[in-house]
Specification:
327 residues, alpha+beta, nine-stranded mixed β-sheet, four-stranded antiparallel β-sheet, 5 helices, 22 strands, 43% strand, CAP_dom, signal, PKD domain-containing protein
């Protein structure tokens, strides 16, 4: 039997903030989070913390506007934008204003990409996330030449998945992948036990340097169904396509991209993966005795997704994934 393997990654969004002052002297704080690379198309989450009795208006610098204490906006084209934030009183008059410069860098030639989220029950969720389009054009996704929205069912053997889009210049771009449909085995009791053992280590204040309890305790992680989707996509992907890496050998997706494709936009994501371990105790013990994996387990996260997948006949047979997130 091959030796068991471990791997980890930690990815964060860049989060920045600044403080401004209203005309009456009251302070309001503006912050945003976005991918650290600032590559177009760039989706930015903006937030304002302000005193009661006020509202917020936004001008994003690309002709679009918005309102509310939290907004999400996508900058499709490279360039430098000045985001204007206005604090409005009860009469709708601006009593405070500040600006946030936003640099958006080009991502190269426009192209269609696929993000593939396999499930163990033979279905797959396809997304155009990862595509580079400098206009708000939708990405069509097809499974075996039929357009789908949400999940589609794989047939046994080879399947064809395609992403199609139109560039800002009106050209059609697409990417096609061959997907494998095969039986996989999961275990909810195994996933539940991994969660229990993980939270047990956090409660004990597991010290990642001494590899024993004795550090500060951490609050328990809450299992999250959306993160479970991303975790199962990773475990299933490794089992189906024979790789062991955080970057998918099938579609090139990263842990953050898989989490976003599953439906969450957290401020930070970390992923622990393992292959070959036979029990939850074996895999959690291995992660806790590896400093990097241990720091993910003991990290400043609030949510976790879990997935154990078994596929007989593969190199490692069993594949494990933990996906941590903080929103």
């Amino acid at each position: 039997m091959p030796a068991a393997r471990l791997c980890l990654t930690l990815l964060s969004l860049l989060t920045l903030g600044q403080t401004a002052r209203a005309q009456n002297g009251e302070l309001f704080r503006v912050g945003y989070s976005a991918s650290a690379d600032h590559l177009a198309p760039l989706t930015v989450t903006l937030r304002v913390t302000h005193p009661a009795g006020y509202t917020v208006a936004w001008a994003f610098g690309d002709g679009a506007t918005g309102s509310g204490a939290q907004v999400i906006h996508t900058f499709y084209r490279p360039g430098t934008y000045q985001i204007q934030v206005s604090l409005l009183n009860a009469q709708g008059r601006a009593v405070g204003r500040t600006e946030i410069p936003m640099q958006v860098r080009g991502s190269g030639a426009e192209r269609a990409e696929l993000t593939v989220l396999h499930t163990a029950d033979g279905t797959v969720r396809l997304s155009g996330l990862g595509s580079v389009l400098y206009s708000p054009e939708p990405v069509r996704v097809l499974l075996n030449d039929r357009e789908i929205s949400g999940a589609g069912r794989l047939s046994g053997g080879a399947n064809t998945a395609t992403a199609q889009a139109t560039t800002s210049a009106g050209q059609t771009v697409q990417r096609t992948l061959t997907l494998t449909g095969a039986a996989l085995t999961t275990s909810l009791p195994f996933d539940s036990e991994v969660l229990r053992l993980t939270n047990q280590a956090r409660a004990q204040g597991w010290n990642c340097d001494t590899k024993r309890p004795g550090g500060p305790a951490r609050p328990p992680l809450k299992g999250d169904a959306t993160l479970d989707v991303a975790a199962q996509a990773q475990s299933a992907g490794m089992a189906l396509y024979g790789y062991f890496d955080h970057a998918s050998a099938l579609d090139g997706s990263t842990p953050m991209r898989r989490v976003q494709a599953a439906g969450m936009n957290p401020t930070s994501v970390a992923e622990n993966i393992a292959a070959g371990q036979q029990t939850p105790k074996e895999v959690v013990d291995a992660w806790l005795r590896s400093p990097g994996h241990c720091r993910n387990i003991m990290g400043d996260f609030t949510l976790v997704g879990l997935s154990y997948v078994q596929r007989p006949g593969t190199k490692f047979k069993s594949y494990w994934t933990q996906v941590f997130a903080r929103q």
